[in-house]
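Weekly modeling sync, notes
Attendees: AB, CL, MP (scribe)

Item 1: holo prediction request
CL wants a bound-state model with flavin-adenine dinucleotide before deciding which constructs to order. AB pointed out that an apo prediction alone won't tell us much about the pocket. Agreed to run with the ligand included and paste results into these notes for async review.

Input as submitted:
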Amino acid sequence: MTHEIDRRHFLKMSSTVLAAAPAVLATGPAALAAGAAQPASDKQGAPFVSTHRMLDLPKARGPRLVIIGGGTSGLTIAKYAKKAYPKFDVVLVEKRCMYSSCFASNLWYPGIIDLEFLADHSFLDAAHNSDYIYVNATCIGLDRASRTVATNEGDIKYDFLVIAPGISYDYDKIGVHDIDTKVALRQTYPGGFICPTEHVTIHRKVRQFEGGVFIQTVPSGNYRCLPAPYERACLIASVIKHNKLKGKVVVLDANPEITIKAPGFHAAFDELYKGIIEWHPTSAVTGVDVAQRTVHTEFDSYKFDDAAIYPNIRAATLIEELGLMAPPTKSNQKEANIDIRFYNLIGDEHVYVTGDSRPMPYSKSGNTSNSEGHYVAKVLAARAQGKDITWTSPQTLCYSMVDAFPKQAIWVDTYYGYDATKDAITGFKDTKVDNTRSEANGATYLEWAHGLYRDMFKA
Ligand SMILES: Cc1cc2nc3c(=O)[nH]c(=O)nc-3n(C[C@H](O)[C@H](O)[C@H](O)COP(=O)(O)OP(=O)(O)OC[C@H]3O[C@@H](n4cnc5c(N)ncnc54)[C@H](O)[C@@H]3O)c2cc1C
C-alpha cells in the first residue's frame, strides 16, 4: 500500500511539467511525428475487398474526388474543394443516413439545446447546395494501384481520394480485453464520443439519474475533444445541483492535470460544484467490472450507479483495414501514415487522410477538422492543377459550457507551429484563452456551433 501511495505521489509530482495543454500535445504524436518518413503499412497480401461491381454514378465531368466520411472534415472538404476547383467531380460517401453532430452534444444533456440543434442538418441538402453527390454507403476496401475505392453499394474510381472516418475506441488500453466486457461497456456505459446513439443513451442516463455516483472517465493520449469530458462532468453536476439530487460526478482522469483550460475547469469544480464533482488525477482506468458496476484504477476501485466510460481512442479501424496505418514510431494511437503538412499518404499523392484519423498532435476537435478542411480543399485544388501550396495551420477554437443554469462558458483559441528542421508540428502557437466563465461566452458558443453547421451544410 505504501508503495502504491508513493508511486501515485511520484506520478503526480513528476507530471506537473506535462500539465500545460501545449506540453501534453507536444509530447504526444508530435514527438513521434518527428520521425523520418516511412512507407504506409499496407496489409501485405490482403485481398482487395470489393463488391465487384461499379456504383451507379453519373459519368465524371472532371477529376473525380471521392471523400469517405461525412463528418466535420469530409463535409467541409466536399464543399470547399468544389469551390476551390469547380472542375472537381465530388462524391461524398457516408455510412450514416442521418447526420447528428458530436460537437455540442454535451449541451443536450442538461437541456441547453434540443436534439434538432444537433441533427436538423441534411446530407442531401449539403450536397445539393454545394453541387456534389452524396452516397449513403460504407467504404469497405481500397485498391490504390487501380485507384478504386470499394463501398458496400459498389466500387468507385477516383483521381483523388480523401478518407475522413473519424475515430474508434481502444478498450484494450484501459485494460478491457475480453470481447464480452467490451460489448457490455459499449452498450451500457458508452463513452459518447463517436456515435449519436451513444448521445441518446447518455441523455437518457442524465435525465433519469436519481442520485448516487456518476463516473466520467478521461483517457490518456490525444483523445477526441480534450475539454469535452470535463465539460460533461460540469453539465451533469449542474443538473444534480439544479434538481437538488444527492449525487456526485466522480471524474477519473488518466492525466495528471486537466488537459486544457485547466484554470477555468478548476474554478468551476471548486466554486460551482464543491461536493458534487470529485476530480481524481492520475487515475487511469485499468479495468471495469460491469456486473459489479466498479471501475478499477491502478490505486483504487470506484463503485458507481451510472457512468460514461470514455476509453482511449485511435484512428477509425477503417484506416487499419485499408492498410494506411503509420508505424508505431510515428503514432502510438494507430493513426494514418500521412505527410504532416499536405495530408497525402506517404508515397501516394492521390490518397489523403484528414480529420481525427490524422497523426498530428492537433486537438481532435470540430473547429480543427473544419479549418483543416478549408486548407486541404486548397491542397487538392492545387495538386489537381499541378501547383504548389504553402502549409497553413488549422485553428482550434473550442468553447466549453461549465454551467447550464445559467449558460456560462470558457474558451481557448489556438494555432500550431511547424518546425522544418524536424519536420514536426510543435504544439500550440498564438494561443488566446478565456478561463473566466460568462454568459456572453455561453451565447457565443451556440453561435459558433451554428456557424459550423452553416459552413458545412449551406451554399
Ligand atoms: C461529446 C463531444 C463533444 C465535442 N465537443 C466539441 C466542441 O465543443 N468543439 C469542437 O470543436 N469539437 C468538439 N467535438 C469534437 C468533434 O466533434 C470532432 O473532433 C470532429 O467532428 C471530427 O471530425 P471528423 O470528420 O474527423 O470525424 P467525424 O465527425 O466523426 O466524422 C467521421 C464520419 O465518417 C463516417 N464513416 C466512418 N467510417 C466510414 C466508412 N467506412 N464509410 C463511410 N463513412 C464512414 C462516420 O459515419 C462519420 O460521419 C466533440 C465531440 C464529442 C463526441
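Recorded for review: The pocket of flavin-adenine dinucleotide is lined by residues 68-74, 93-96, 102-106, 138-139, 164-166, 192-193, 224-225, 228, 316, 318, 355-356, 364-367, 369, 398-399 (CB under 6 Å).
Action items: CL to compare against the apo run; MP to circulate these notes.
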